[in-house]
Design brief:
436 residues, alpha/beta, 22% helix
Length: 436
């Protein structure tokens, strides 16, 4: 686990890290406060409710280090990157910015899309009120504080009031080196009445290189704004993936948040949606496919802070071999959040006898006029269904593909962006071909 004297992230290493950065004083101050919170967090145990099902005994922070200089001429095999015309694209490799682009018309309308480090320096007045204030706080736990002290690369999307971005935007978080620590950060700000779609993907250049991603995502949706955000986690199976992700939705705003988890050796995502204004709406979609000995874990929260809000979470998980998926979900309703409608559901399909799925839904309700429900199911592929399909001319691979695609179809049908539906389907199809 993390310790205060690990050489890569010790107090001495942190001072050297600050000296290597050329950043505004206010950013350095945030880092220093986060590092103090990180040191303090090391004296306390992690929340047992969130982390008890994760075996972190073999995890050593000192096994990873930050890259000091950017890489060049690295090619990634990605699922989204070259499949559509994007309004802009940002690429980070090993936690450092590599390139970014934005449609000239969008730039003229005040849209910002690019490297977090660069834009925090050049557009402080726009970004400082939002960066690590309402989303990724300093003291959530040691992983969050560690990230907030040492974040390097990252993507910013800022859309001004009433500006509509119709073409999807694309962000690639890549890992090229061996045992690299990537602490990239995503910040999305939609002012009142704005709309945008951001597709974000993780990928490994070397299928055998180990690594760590300890990331954060802040999605801030203004009144009447509409954000569609997709993150496809597709690391190789040597990478450990941790992320603290927060969405906040104001009055009559809409957030559609889709997560896909296919890669990594071990993943733990803390995903928290806040409905902060009356009429706010959030839809959370999840597609997970675990194989071999992968451990993919989620801790989700839907917090209703205002009346007449709606949240709808649907996760679908497929497990094979000796893999394990953990989902702990919670709907929280504040005392004044009357007329809340909250729903959460997790369904798991087991393709082998040795796989395991843990689903723990929960409710904490303080209001008395609400409609909140939850559910979870776990089942195995029916051998008779598989035989029936194969008896009609399908191969085992084709039959399994039909069954799995049908299982995921309920999530696919909720996603209006065709590129996302196609990409998720292609990713699942690729993974089904492994070991069959």
């Amino acid at each position: 686990m993390l310790t205060a004297d690990t050489s890569s992230f010790s107090s001495t290493a942190f001072e050297a890290f600050l000296e290597s950065r050329t950043e505004p004083d206010w950013v350095t101050a945030k880092r220093s406060a986060a590092f103090e919170a990180y040191l303090d967090s090391l004296t306390r145990d992690l929340d047992p409710e969130e982390y008890r099902r994760l075996d972190l005994r073999s995890f050593k922070a000192d096994a990873y280090s930050l890259r000091s200089s950017p890489v060049s001429n690295v090619q990634f095999s990605t699922l989204m990157q070259d499949r559509a015309e994007f309004g802009g694209a940002v690429v980070h490799v090993d936690g450092l910015p590599v390139k970014s682009s934005l449609n000239a018309d969008l730039a003229k309308r005040g849209v910002l899309f690019g490297s977090l480090s660069d834009l925090l320096a050049s557009h402080r007045e726009v970004l400082e009120p939002h960066f690590m204030t309402r989303g990724a706080g300093l003291t959530r736990d040691r992983f969050t504080a560690w990230h907030n002290a040492y974040w390097t690369g990252g993507t910013v999307l800022y859309v001004p009031r009433n500006v509509e971005v119709t073409a999807p935007l694309y962000s690639l978080i890549g890992m090229q080196g061996n045992n690299v620590a990537d602490l990239s950060h995503t910040l999305v700000i939609l002012e009142d009445g704005a709309s945008a779609t951001l597709l974000e993907e993780t990928a490994s250049a070397d299928p055998k290189a180990g690594g760590l991603h300890n990331g954060a995502v802040e999605l801030l949706v203004g009144a009447g704004a509409r954000l569609r955000y997709v993150q496809l986690q597709n690391w190789n199976t040597k990478v450990r993936h941790f992320a603290h992700q927060v969405g906040r939705v104001e009055r009559d705003g809409m957030l559609q948040w889709t997560v896909g988890a296919l890669g990594s050796r071990m993943q733990h995502i803390h995903q928290h949606v806040h409905l902060d204004g009356p009429g706010a709406n959030a839809q959370v979609n999840g597609v997970t496919f675990a194989t071999d000995r992968q451990l993919l874990s989620y801790y989700t929260q839907q917090t209703h802070n205002a009346p007449n809000t709606n949240s709808d979470l649907l996760y679908k998980e497929v497990l094979r071999d000796q893999s394990r998926v953990v989902w702990r979900g919670m709907i929280k309703v504040a005392k004044d959040a009357q007329k809340t409608d909250g729903y959460q559901r997790s369904d798991a399909l087991m393709l082998s006898q040795d796989a395991r799925a843990d689903a723990i839904p929960g409710l904490e309700i303080e209001a008395d006029d609400v409609r909140c429900t939850h559910g979870a199911t776990t089942g195995r592929v029916d051998d008779e269904q598989l035989f029936y399909a194969m008896a009609r001319g399908l191969s085992r691979y084709e039959a399994m593909h039909v069954i799995v695609e049908g299982f995921f179809a309920q999530v696919y049908d909720r996603i209006p962006v065709e590129l996302v539906r196609e990409t998720l389907g292609q990713a699942v199809q690729r993974k089904l071909g492994i070991g069959l």
